Amino acid sequence: MGPVPGTARAQAYKAAFLAAALLALAACASTKLDIIQVGPWFPARDWREVEVFASRESTRAPWGGIGIIHSPRVGAGAGGAKTEKLKSEARKAAAAMGADGVIITLDSVESGPQMGVYQEPEVYISALAIKYVTAASTPTAK
């Protein structure tokens, strides 16, 4: 038989259940990535095969974009562990698209002027999943 309603034990169970539910919801919401398909997707590959780049200039061959990935905002002071987890999630999302590489940048969110209110700076991950071009041709001059 369960706890009697209204007792301290019942209230403790209720508080524990609510806390666990809130933590589960927060965990699910924190890693939700927005993904926009901008090109054809290919068969998925292992995420460890997807190269990670910090800029477009650092790529090693001609490529085309196949997907744009944005993370939710996180506090800039939250530490690198949260942003590293988001970068890993972006790499896995790119692998699911069949990308050869992903260009990942950490962007800051502009905060508007708010007199007398402190607002912690926020950042988010912005990534571009890329596929290398295997047969590139250039147009001929007429």
Characterize the structure shown.
This protein is of the alpha+beta class and 142 residues long. The protein has two domains: 1-30; 31-132, Translation Initiation Factor IF3. The protein is 29% helix and 25% strand. It contains two helices and six strands. The chain has helices at 8-30, 80-97, and strands at residues 34-37, 51-53, 63-70, 74-75, 101-108, 122-132. Strands 1, 2, 3, 4, 5 and 6 form a six-stranded mixed beta sheet that branches. The termini are far apart. 18% of the residues are buried.
Which short descriptors sum up this protein?
142 residues, alpha+beta, Translation Initiation Factor IF3, 2 domains, extended
Structural domain tally: 2
Helix content: 25-40%
* Backbone CA Rg: 22 Å
- Largest sheet, described in full? 6 strands, mixed
Low-confidence stretches: 21-30
Instruction: Give the DSSP E fraction (strand runs of 2 or more residues).
Output: 25-35%
CATH class of the largest domain: Alpha Beta
Q: Report the structural category.
A: alpha+beta
What's the architecture of the largest domain in CATH terms?
2-Layer Sandwich
- Oligomeric state of the chains? single chain
How do the helices and strands follow one another from N- to C-terminus? HEEEEHEE
In short:
The protein has two helices and six strands; from the N terminus they run αββββαββ.
Q: Secondary structure elements and their pairing?
A:
Elements: H1 8-30, E1 34-37, E2 51-53, E3 63-70, E4 74-75, H2 80-97, E5 101-108, E6 122-132
Parallel strand pairs: 2-5
Antiparallel strand pairs: 1-3, 3-6, 4-6, 5-6
